[in-house]
């Protein structure tokens, strides 16, 4: 029998965790002599009350959805892919090559091409750690972390030595041609009379991320492959008994994971910067871990958690801009959210489970 | 009358909505062996855990030698003179016997003094109770029976007056079990009190003075062993009449289905576990493989089931099947007509987090009839699962419940339903009734016999000699990776099989007395 109703598991516990995180964040803000109420207001104002704020929030959320889904898919196979960062960086290279060297007539075709490029490069970057794990038993956490560093160094080399236009000073590729420019929310939703999402980077890739959520849901819970991935994740011995090859599942799950992480490059590189720059990922690969954790590795949860982290990111930027609260503090707040929603999950869960059991017994 | 060694009054304990112990009262006389019998989940282990201080009872009182005693943790239990021998030994594998015995009972910071003292004490205990163990042997080099002695010595070294043994014979050969019971007798003579927890009716009948039966968290009866019978105990455990013997007609074997020649299996550590065995299983017969756990039977099943590699020649219905690489996985075996009820249903046969319906296609999930387009036909699988669960009387009959929420017997029925309903040519079945309640054992045995009567070949591996004896049409005994011999169940007895299980092939002494023995058993 389940210990508590489903809604409590899915809604109540995350909400309580968030409130706890908010409480401790308030203490920290008080400690440096600022008002938590003011700070919270600013964050909400900046991230949610104006359409431009939403434009940023959803832009970040798009990244986190992809990287969160990446972590979630791998995690269903009990693989901890913390290489989303590196996979997304290398995927950026894939996007750049597709955008720079293929003359695209229209963005709608270009985004398909760029998606293939991103997914392919991201998947390839995950393939080597996957192979090492499956065949050699090298731990995926170690190898994916190392591959993050290799990706950063490789990207640096490629940008400085190969892709940098002659005479340019910064390590970045040339601007992508106009045929590859993706419509932003501003382009899509503004009318003559009112400009919406002014200047915000959110773009059509957001819908691609939503589609990815649906895709992952179907994959994990409705296909044979998803059945095998989850079975392998639950019990490797049972998987072997059922004739499921651990090598095959490890490699396939990591390829899908890498491809999903890579897809975020479509948003950053093609949608926002419109050229390949260094550090386009801005740590989104790591945030993905928190997003997956908070979203309980379920696509819907990942989607909601991604938007929450998008809000934290954008609200944090606003705080840094308008108050004396340093940017580093935003990291503290994010860390508190991760701590309470992820790591300290059981601290909230156990008392609530007990409460429900006690209530049930009283009613019985 | 002296005060009881242990008296429990009105012990109750609930885990969430589950009432594990309900108002249990029991009184154990000093210097006796008191058996506690009951099905899995009846609350035996919970009760003993309360006595040993692992759990705190919600209500009730504990009296030791007439004194009301609080046992908040195991330290207090030890102080009160209670020693526990767990089913899974709690020994440090790479320590010596002596080091294990003083572990947690060292006097002072320097080990030498306590080791010296323990050595003397150990010698004394060995002389007194016949518990001979080399004090300097490293645990991992000892046989399971000797490891268990170390556990008993540990308890005695801590001055235990009351010894609790939880399913002590599960891992022993019949001979080792006999030795254990001789030791327990000796301990009883010396005035120790012993509580024996088991689900084996015969052990209770052979060794105990008094027996308490538990069912669904309640103590249903406490009777003098001399005044009861196995049938009565089984009925008290299950709550209805139980058939203890399997009803079956003689086998009518047909053509050879499985033929194994020179099979060798080397495990991951490079140890050879199966050392060249030959066997055949024919249609319409049950070949039982007896043996103490860990003598290569598991590896034999794993290779046949396609999830471990081996060398040798195996033919299935006349066609050789590959033992390594491509085509040697579980899927290929299923395609070849081999179904497999694995030894460990929780780690192998089921995904515990999966719902029952998902588990009813586990291993067959790639079959065409479970697909609809590129997706799985979940609705169809669910409907089919419901039918199977009804047919196999799985309780509760709810396909959406996760496998981990079913009792051991019902989990086994789910696996059995899945594997039998595929209409295989050969059924591999390992430890079919391990951790399964008596009521379900009857059902499972009947299903296996029915399958045999439909002309299927069945390879049965079990460490329960009773099960092997009552189900098999032929018995092969495995020891140390070899098959020590094959016997006809009608012309052998437990002692002969026990010797073979211990690696002794010269069994002429016991076979001569076989007929006499059989008479006594009957």
TrEMBL record, chain A:
Pfam short name (any one): BPD_transp_2
Gene Ontology cellular component terms for the protein in this record: plasma membrane
Keywords: Cell membrane, Membrane, Transmembrane, Transmembrane helix
Record GO terms (molecular function): transmembrane transporter activity
Keyword Cytoplasm: no
Cell compartment(s), UniProt: Cell membrane
Transmembrane annotation, as ranges: 12-33, 53-75, 87-104, 110-128, 140-160, 200-220, 241-264, 276-295, 302-323, 329-348
Superkingdom, natural source: Bacteria
Database matches in InterPro entries: ABC_transp_permease (IPR001851)
Membrane topology recorded in Swiss-Prot or TrEMBL: Multi-pass membrane protein
UniProt keyword Phosphoprotein present: no
Protein name: Nucleoside ABC transporter membrane protein
Species: Shimia haliotis
From TrEMBL, chain B:
Domain ABC transporter stretches: 6-241, 258-505
Alphabetized UniProt keyword annotations: ATP-binding, Cell membrane, Membrane, Nucleotide-binding, Repeat, Sugar transport, Translocase, Transport
InterPro entries: AAA+_ATPase, ABC_carbohydrate_import_ATPase, ABC_transporter-like_ATP-bd, ABC_transporter-like_CS, P-loop_NTPase
Protein name listed in UniProt: Nucleoside ABC transporter ATP-binding protein
Keyword Amino-acid biosynthesis listed: no
Domain of life: Bacteria
PANTHER family attached to this UniProt entry: CARBOHYDRATE TRANSPORT ATP-BINDING PROTEIN MG119-RELATED, GUANOSINE IMPORT ATP-BINDING PROTEIN NUPO
């Amino acid at each position: 029998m389940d210990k508590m109703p489903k809604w409590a598991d899915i809604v109540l516990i995350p909400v309580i965790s968030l409130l706890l995180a908010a409480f401790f964040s308030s203490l920290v803000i008080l400690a440096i002599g600022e008002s938590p109420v003011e700070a919270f207001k600013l964050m909400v104002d900046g991230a949610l009350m104006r359409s431009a704020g939403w434009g940023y929030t959803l832009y970040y959320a798009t990244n986190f959805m992809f990287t969160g889904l990446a972590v979630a898919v791998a995690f269903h196979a009990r693989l901890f892919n913390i290489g989303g960062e590196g996979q997304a960086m290398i995927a950026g290279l894939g996007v750049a090559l597709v955008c720079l060297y293929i003359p695209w007539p229209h963005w709608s075709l270009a985004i398909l091409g760029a998606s293939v490029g991103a997914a392919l490069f991201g998947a390839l970057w995950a393939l080597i750690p996957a192979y090492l794990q499956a065949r050699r038993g090298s731990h995926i956490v170690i190898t994916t972390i190392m591959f993050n560093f290799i990706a950063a160094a490789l990207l640096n080399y490629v940008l400085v030595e190969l892709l940098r236009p002659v005479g340019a000073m910064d390590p970045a590729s040339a601007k992508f041609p106009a045929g590859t420019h993706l419509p932003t929310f501003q382009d899509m939703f503004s009318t003559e009379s009112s400009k919406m999402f002014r200047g915000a980077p959110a773009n059509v890739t957001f819908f691609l991320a939503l589609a990815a959520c649906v895709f992952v849901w179907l994959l994990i819970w409705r296909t044979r492959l998803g059945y095998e991935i989850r079975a392998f994740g639950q019990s490797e011995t049972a998987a072997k008994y059922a004739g499921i090859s651990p090598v095959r599942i490890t490699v396939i799950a990591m390829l899908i994971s890498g491809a999903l992480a890579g897809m975020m490059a479509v948003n950053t590189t093609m949608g926002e910067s419109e050229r390949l720059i260094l550090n386009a990922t801005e740590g989104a690969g790591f945030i993905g871990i928190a997003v997956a954790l908070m979203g309980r590795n379920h696509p819907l949860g990942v989607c909601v958690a991604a938007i929450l982290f998008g809000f934290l990111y954008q609200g944090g930027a606003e705080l840094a801009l308008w108050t004396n609260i340093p940017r580093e503090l935003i990291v503290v707040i994010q860390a508190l959210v991760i701590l309470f929603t992820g790591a300290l999950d059981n601290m909230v869960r156990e008392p609530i489970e007990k409460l429900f059991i006690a209530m049930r017994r009283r009613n019985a | 009358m002296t005060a009881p060694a242990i008296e429990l009054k009105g012990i109750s304990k609930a885990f969430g909505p589950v009432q594990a112990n309900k108002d249990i009262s029991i009184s154990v006389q000093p210097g006796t062996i008191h058996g506690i019998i009951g099905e899995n989940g009846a609350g035996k282990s919970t009760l003993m855990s309360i006595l040993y201080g692992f759990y705190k009872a919600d209500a009730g009182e504990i009296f030791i030698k007439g004194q009301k005693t609080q046992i908040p943790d195991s330290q207090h239990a030890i102080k009160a003179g209670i020693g526990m021998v767990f089913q899974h030994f709690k020994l440090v594998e790479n320590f010596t016997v002596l080091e294990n015995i003083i572990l947690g009972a060292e006097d002072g910071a320097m080990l030498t003094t306590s080791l010296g003292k323990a050595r003397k004490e150990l010698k004394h205990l060995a002389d007194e109770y016949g518990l001979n163990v080399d004090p300097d042997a490293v645990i991992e080099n000892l046989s399971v029976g000797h490891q268990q002695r170390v556990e008993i010595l540990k308890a005695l070294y801590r001055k235990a007056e009351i010894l609790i043994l939880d399913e002590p014979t599960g891992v022993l050969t019949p001979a080792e079990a006999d030795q254990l019971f001789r030791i327990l007798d000796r301990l009883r003579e010396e005035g120790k009190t012993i509580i024996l927890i088991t689900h084996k009716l015969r052990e209770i009948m052979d060794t105990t003075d008094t027996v308490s039966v538990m069912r669904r968290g309640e103590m249903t009866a406490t009777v003098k062993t001399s005044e009861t019978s196995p049938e009565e105990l089984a009925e008290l455990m299950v709550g209805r009449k139980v058939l203890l013997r399997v009803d079956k007609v003689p086998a009518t074997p047909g053509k050879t289905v499985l033929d194994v020649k020179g099979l060798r299996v080397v495990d991951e550590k490079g140890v050879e576990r199966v050392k060249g065995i030959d066997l055949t299983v024919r249609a319409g017969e049950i070949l039982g493989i007896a043996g103490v756990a860990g003598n290569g039977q598991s590896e034999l099943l794993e290779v046949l089931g396609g999830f471990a590699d081996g060398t040798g020649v195996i033919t299935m219905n006349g066609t050789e099947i590959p033992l390594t690489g491509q085509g040697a996985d579980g899927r290929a075996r299923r395609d070849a007509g081999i179904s497999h009820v694995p030894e460990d249903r929780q780690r192998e046969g089921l995904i515990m987090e999966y719902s029952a319906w998902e588990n009813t296609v586990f291993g067959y999930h790639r079959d065409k009839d479970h697909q609809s387009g590129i997706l799985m036909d979940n609705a169809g699988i669910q409907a089919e699962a419901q039918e199977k669960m009804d047919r196999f009387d799985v309780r509760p009959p709810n396909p959406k419940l996760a496998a981990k929420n079913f009792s051991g017997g019902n989990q086994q029925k789910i696996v059995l339903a899945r594997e039998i309903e595929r209409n295989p040519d050969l059924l591999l079945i390992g430890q079919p009734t391990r951790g399964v309640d008596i009521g379900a054992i009857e059902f499972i045995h009947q299903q296996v016999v029915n399958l045999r009567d439909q002309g299927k070949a069945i390879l049965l591996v079990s460490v329960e000699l009773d099960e092997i004896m009552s189900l098999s049409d032929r018995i092969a005994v495995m020891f140390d990776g070899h098959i020590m011999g094959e016997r006809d169940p009608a012309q052998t007895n437990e002692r002969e099989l026990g010797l073979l299980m211990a690696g002794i092939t010269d069994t002429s002494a016991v076979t001569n007395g076989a007929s006499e023995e059989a008479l006594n058993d009957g």
